[in-house]
Queue: 2 jobs
Job 1
Amino acid sequence: MRRAASAILCLALLLALAGCAPQAQTATVFAMDTVMELTAYGDREAVDGAVSLIHALEDRLSVTAADSDIARVNSSGGGAVDPGTAALLRRALDISALSGGALDVTIYPLVRAWGFTTGEYRVPGDDEIGALLKNVNYAAVQAGEANVSLPAGALLDLGAVAKGWTGDQIAALWRQVGVKSGLINLGGNVQTVGGKPDGSDWVVGIRDPFSEDVLGAIAARDLAVVTSGGYQRYFEREGVRYCHIIDPRTGKPADSGLASVTVIGREGVLCDGLSTALYVMGLEDAVRLWRENTGFDLVLVTDGGQVVITEGIEGSFTPMGAYTDKEIKVMRRG
Amino acid sequence: MIAVILLLSVAASLFLFLRPAAGHTAEIYVDGVLYRRVDLGKLTAPERIEVRTERGVNVLLAEPGRIRVESADCPDKVCVEAGWLEDSAAPIVCLPHRVVIKLTGGTSLDAEAG
């Protein structure tokens, strides 16, 4: 009798616990040339709203969709755009300036010339690169409240910041509707809302640029974690590896001595834009830019396999796998 | 007595809810919908899995503890080149066919940046 009673009680508690614990609501979205995974605890509508948001943003920001804001601006040299598109462009221009042009939203003609837009890779000649570089200049782009103007010959591409921005918009939506726990993974561009449902931090791995493993993990809460690296997309010709991130100063694939750059901070669009810019800039300039600014921390991996982190994440970064035995260099502001 | 039973029931419930999954299970999704689940820990011999989608076919090879895309009729073959998935929070993705293969259980990571 007593055993039966305790079994019933156990079952009742089990059901009660199952009822109380917020359920994971998830969605998988194929957009922006990647696969996105959304998880919000307890709120189905929040996830559905995020899916609509992703499609709306892709429709406006895609450089290839014929009727996007970006495609229209590129074909006509400017004009009216959605206020959100203009706001993203203004933020992207800020980040371009912050990085001294290492991020440039007008690099698209070079990306196309190297074949990274189609996968039909080629190595353009110096004359072709020189001619295309004449039209690369983010500083000549004008962005108003709901309009954009490009200098003649320039083409705009917000691909280096669009996913970070999208993550920010989803995170803002979720916080607004009261989501306490959410994970936004836009094809390896990760943002977290709150912590996990059990109150602990989200654990976000960082890919090892030299293998299929992770090099370590960041304990994250209300943070974006974004990585750029040459390993993500590249091609080889005659033994030379050409990566997809083009250095706006040379018009050629970046070759700064860094294998990957991970930026961790509150603002996804900043992390996204800076991960590209710092990859182009290299170790020394990346650390200098970090010292001169606030709002983000870094995990840098050099071509030689040295891992350098900044002091703000000293307590939340854990090396893993082959990196547990390696020296991790910590940069300080002082 | 009641307190003891209560405590035991809570402990039992927590145990049932929180115990980690043993080993890896591979989940195969097509366009976001679960297509098949393979317990890689229980496999004793290699198994070939044909994933037929509206957009094309991916042939998967599951082995004890790991899984890969062996061949696919997609244009870019990124899924084939991705190699074995055995210990990672990053899924294998075939964007053209909207196929995603990911592991559950066994990994301590919630997501992977990169």
Job 2
Amino acid sequence: MIGSTLISVLIVSAIGAALAAVLVVSEYFIGNYGECRIVISDDREWKVQGGRNLLSILTAEKIFIPSACGGRGTCGLCKLKVLEGAGNILPTEEPYLSKEERAAKVRLCCQVKVKKDLRILIPRELLTIQEYATRCTRIINLTHDIKLFRLQLIEPATMDYVPGQYVQMRTPVYEKSSVEVYRAYSIASDPADKSIIELIIRLVPNGICTTYCFKYLREGDEVRINGPYGDFRLSDTEAPIIFIAGGSGMAPIKCILHHMKNVGSKRPAVYYFGANKTGELFYTDLMRQWESQLRSFRFVPVVASVEGRETWNGEVGLVTQAVQRSVNNGPECEAYLCGSPGMIDASIKVLEGLGVTDNRIFYDKFS
Amino acid sequence: MSIGAEIQESFVVMVAAIFTQNILLTYFLGLCSFIGVSREIKGAVGLGLAVIFVITTTTLLNWIAYHYVLVPLGLESFRFILFIIIIAAFVQFVEMVVERYSPFLYQQLGVFLPLITVNCAIFGAALFMVIREYTFIVTIGYSLGSGIGWFLAILAMAGIRQKMAIDRIPRGLQGPGITLILAGLMALAFIGFAGVLQGR
């Protein structure tokens, strides 16, 4: 009985295996489209093994096209312009493409199988996300728990980013962590120099990445980052700006201010920067210098409490209280916030109370 | 049975499979792709033709596998597994070949092939041909008829749905809801054919 069952199972398995073998062999001979060339936006090209769909090939080449369904043709997100070599639009793509898109040769790249040389266009934002090898050239103490890390890009040598964006930094395997981790940090450096990325990092007790940066990373070490990411950036309006930041939230605001100085922006801007005590303020001299260089920029440091014999003639209290006290043109303003979730939520509440509409409040929340 | 009688029988079975015993409208098999791809006539024709091809070829392949492999080995109870494997492998193979050698055919029919692999009408036809003990020649008529019947059903449905696109359908019934109701009405209409071939 057991013997005959076993034999039956074996026979059926053998038939299945034989069919699978036929498929594998025919895949090798029939499904083999040889080497194909893909040219991206006319300035990059490489050779790939044909036969797979465009989305998976691009992902393998570290070009990350948004896709929610994982290439099954049901989300319609992975749209790209394929100028040459994709053949006709397939019935599976039709429901997702409008008339204008069809005319512009937009395709769902998960449905486009690479069978011959392709010429495609990829939006610049997607192309610029890549991995960078860098060297840490300076580490500067800003406060007792915040440091600035200056990274010199090695390969690629420059990063094209929009002020306000962030990068992800790789922490290698080290004593305190057995896996590689990535953490996001906003770019703080002057965007005029695209070969240097500065990050402002606050030590998080027991944080894997920040502990590595503070205790293990030395000047001269190699650091890997990828990016740039994020849509926190200055709008192109002329509305007066309220910047609010705390701690390492300084980073993207500083980058944006560099940019405003570089382009000679005349937008009125007030920067409220909160700290617990005067010893936690940093870049105050730089900001004072910018106050005289930028047309209408004002820096308002706010400390929560003043210790004993200190002399402090600035704002005291929470940063939100300072905003509450001094902003009187709320409905005209745009607000840019960066800091802890608590600070941002409190700020949004105060700003809305002052008449700043919520579509003009932009923020970058630490998470 | 003589060859002539078999061919005659085959023809009768084919007409029955198209009209009185329509695999979709009488047995309600292959409903998911029927509902999914019946929005436009163009896609429905493509899918319908692909079903005719796959249902005919795989049912015949399965007939051979059943009578020359499973029956001699006494493994009839494994037919479910074997039929599924054969259908899946064959469809995948055909897709590969069509994609390589006939871009036009792939464009028209090939893209539907993965949808059909899991179509229960095709598996159902293979099981019916065993249960009803059809001979090879009769199976040719039966499988062809089943495919044509399925094709007719989805073509009719796509025609109705294309006309219905501008109708005001209650929101809860839009899409699959109204399609199922239509399928039920079509099935009722097809009962009218029942008298054509008594006892089949």
